[in-house]
C-alpha cells in the first residue's frame, strides 16, 4: 500500500501529468511521468477505467499496480509524479507481466 505522501489525489495533478508528462507505453499500461525539482517523495496515481472490466477486476488491477509501485519506490527520483493508465489487456495480465512492464517504464522515465 502506498502511504498518503506517495499518492496523487487532485484531478488537476492527474491532468498535468497526463498532458505534460513523458510517456512510456506497454502492452497493458501507459505510464506518464513529470519531474519537478521539489524535494518531496515521488507520487503515484492510477487510472483504471470501466473498459478494463467490472469493479472486482478493476480493483484487482489497481491493487497490483500499487504493489508494483511500492516495490519500485526506492528507485524513483524524488519529486516525480507518475500516472499509470491500465489498458483493457491489464485485466488478463499476470502480476509478473505488470511488474516487468511498469518497472521497465519507471526505469526509463523516472529512475533516480
TrEMBL record:
Which keywords fit this entry according to its UniProt record?
Endonuclease, Hydrolase, Nuclease, RNA-binding, tRNA processing
> Is RNA-binding one of the keywords?
yes
Name the domain of life: Bacteria
Looking up InterPro entries in the UniProt record yields: Ribosomal_Su5_D2-typ_SF, Ribsml_uS5_D2-typ_fold_subgr, RNase_P, RNase_P_CS
Molecular function GO labels: 3'-tRNA processing endoribonuclease activity; ribonuclease P activity; tRNA binding
Q: Which GO terms describe its cellular component?
A: ribonuclease P complex
A Pfam family (short name) is: Ribonuclease_P
GO terms (BP aspect):
tRNA 5'-leader removal
Reaction catalysed by this chain? Endonucleolytic cleavage of RNA, removing 5'-extranucleotides from tRNA precursor
Q: What is its EC number?
A: 3.1.26.5
What does the annotation say about its assembly with partners? Consists of a catalytic RNA component (M1 or rnpB) and a protein subunit.
Q: Which NCBIfam families match?
A: rnpA
Q: Which family does it belong to?
A: Belongs to the RnpA family.
The entry's function note states: RNaseP catalyzes the removal of the 5'-leader sequence from pre-tRNA to produce the mature 5'-terminus. It can also cleave other RNA substrates such as 4.5S RNA. The protein component plays an auxiliary but essential role in vivo by binding to the 5'-leader sequence and broadening the substrate specificity of the ribozyme.
Q: What is this protein called?
A: Ribonuclease P protein component
Its source organism is Microbacterium barkeri
